[in-house]
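Q: How would the structure tokens look for this protein?
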Amino acid sequence: MKINCRRVLMITVVGLLVFTGSPLRAQTDKMVIDNAKVSGRKTRPAVTFPHNKHVEVDLSCKDCHHIYENGKNILDESKLEEGNQDIRCSACHGPTFRINLEEAFHNQCMGCHTKAQKEKKKTGPRFCGECHIKK
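A: Here is the predicted structure in token form.
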């Protein structure tokens, strides 16, 4: 029996991706979003955001991440690397931007979840205490 090296290599790569996760999952799975660090005030507990859960439901990176120019999302997805400070939401959505960080998160997250609910799709939380969980 002759071993096909390409086939073995392909099976190995696919196996590694299945068992270690897709390279698209560049972010840490559980990210803590704490607006108090940016705004200087704390009204509710920080939010633990399950990044991989959102990747698994086939959302495009551009469904959440964006850089708008003339009404078009021109984000270069290759810039979405963990630790890249330029692509953090707070890089644009600061206290002086027309949509501050807290509003940006609320609009993005609750807006998407409400839209999914209206479309009769399984969705995530839409109310304050479902994201801002007291410990």
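The chain has one domain: 27-131.

Residues 16 and 22 are 9 Å apart (CA to CA).

Upvote if useful.
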